[in-house]
Amino acid sequence: MNVRRLAREEWEAMDVPHLPEMPTNEIQIVGVEHDGEIVACAAIFRATHWEGTWISPEHRNGGVVRALLRGASDAALALGSPWVFTGSDGKQMDWILRRLGGVPVEMKTYVLPLEGTLCRHTEDKSEAPFQENVQWQQQQ
Fold first, then answer.
1. Fewest CB atoms within 10 A around its CB: which of 8, 10, 19, 114?
2. pLDDT digits over 14-58, tens only?
């Protein structure tokens, strides 16, 4: 097996629907090749996350919201990000985000530590719901 970064033409030709649309310089697709065939891939990209928005109940008006949106947008752009990930905790925020051009991404989000995690597992010994007899191997 060979693990390598795929050229944009390769991963665009794969028709993998869950790969995000973004400029080539902001994404890398890692592929696994077996006998000359790409058998797996993953998208790796740097992302800016917009979190913790709060507005005082006494000041929830268009001017305050617009000022916060402008300031947070400028901060994200200063980090070099033309887009951000953000979340919603209800229908009103869903409506606001969609009105601003947000596109929902249906997924659960996890923070995955990368130092020494290859094939490592937690103490959770419950059965994997997706495959029988999953064998975890601890990194040596």
1. 114
2. 877 666 667 777 788 899 999 999 999 888 888 888 988 888 999
Residue partners of 97: CB distance under 8 A and separation at least 6: 86, 88, 104
Residue 32, domain member (yes or no): yes
Element (H, E) at 96: helix 91-99
Reported as a pLDDT band with limits 50, 70 and 90, residue 135 is: very low
Do 57 and 72 lie in one domain? The reply is: yes
Is there a single domain that holds both residue 57 and residue 95? yes
Residue 11: exposure state from Cβ atoms within 10 A (0-12, 13-18, ≥19): buried
pLDDT band at 99 (very low <50, low <70, confident <90, very high): very high
Q: How many domains does the chain have?
A: 2
The span from the CA of 140 to the CA of 124, in Å, is: 19
Q: Identify the domain containing residue 38 by its residue range.
A: 2-45
Instruction: Collapse the DSSP code of 59 into the 3-class scheme (helix H, G, I; strand E, B; otherwise coil) and give the result.
Output: helix
Closest CA to 106 of 18, 12, 42: 18
Burial of 39 (0-12, 13-18, 19+ CB in 10 A): exposed
